Amino acid sequence: MDYTSVIYAVLSMGGIGLFFAIMLALADKKLKVEEDPRVAQIEELLPGANCGACGLPGCAACADAMVKGDVLATACPVCSEESQHSIAKLLGVEVEKGERNVAVVLCQGGHSNVVQRADYEGVATCLGISLVSGGDKACEYGCLGKGDCVEACQFDAIYIGEEGLPIVDREKCTGCGACATVCPRNIIEMHPVSHHVFVLCKNHDKGADARKVCKTACIGCSICVKNDASGGFKIDNFLATVDHEKYGSTMELPTDKCPTNAIVAVGYNDEK
Amino acid sequence: MNLIIIFLSAAIINNYVLVQFLGICPFVGVSKKVGPALSMGMATTFVMTLSASVAWLINHYILSSKTGLGLEFLQIVAFILVIASLVQLVEMFIKKMSKPLYDALGIFLPLITTNCAIMGVALNLVTKEYGFIESVVFGTSAGIGFTIAIVLMAGIREELELADVPKYFKGAPITMIIAGCLALAFMGFAGMI
To answer: What is chain B's alpha carbon radius of gyration, rounded to the nearest angstrom?
Structure first.
């Protein structure tokens, strides 16, 4: 057996490897760029998963942006509070806790309120049901109740209640927004925990049509707009919306005359 | 004359992206805007030229059975080593020389390592038995071909932002369709040489 080619192979590959290794080592010395040492330190503290949750391409870019001041020290939503504090310390800033967001389910179309127009038998997910000619409920805007949001929640903060609608545990909710992302109907929105008054409907149909499919639909009658002094309520395409900057954090409803009780103070019970 | 034919062949007629379908990853990944696409093309051209010349040297003096030690079976491993080291070198160089370009290329600069068009150039110049000068021209023109393809694509995609694309064709599907159309257009050059 001829071993020469084996020896040649090992030697030549080893030689090439060594050559490039030395070249790179030299280049590293020669072409070294003086960097802010904090960038490397912060990069150590970041998870290093390059997940992109901060909106930047990778942890190195995030660390760089933190040092430059383009993003906050808390820009990484993945890393622990501890490392966030250490990063803030490195940057010489204080961690300011912004107000916590919680998920709000903007639909009241449970079993007793909404008209059921068909029986659905198939893949038991909201996404699946939403693909089949608009779902089994007559309302084409409302919650489908199959619990994709429950599946998505990592913190057991959302569950399907008796009415077949998801209920958010405002204590447990971390505001990650996973449920809002998976909801095929975009019923779930993230709002600051101090906001309480919401229009729990997303139906943009005309009043009569909306009323036909759900007892608690917003029919766009604008009673709330007329009775609300703050000017926070607005009717947009047959649906009332609240602007909390104007309406504030109060739990008081703008009016008790909402004909369908679509306007509700969310989180009223658990803080009373 | 021979060099001109090599240039035309590598850059246009046998365009690495649109005719041989190599290097599709950066072709789709960095073709959202013309600016970064152009710098990606430049960086790739640079690495291709360098790696083509180094690959020729290594092949000629070490791997080839005629002029070297007869280690052809190590081609792929050796070329991977060459390309990976060169990309590292280029990355350090660009970081030192032009920080804005480094930032613009971002994650795609290290990704040149895994650009199979570069590997394709290195392997092709061996099978075509080019000389050193021919190899360098081959590498450069393959890089220019890559740049042409990626810039064309980026230009079309910039225009596409304003177009009324049907809902289900938005994003990746329409990109694939356009890449297909471009490839069809480049098929028109086939047989010129």
So the answer is: 17
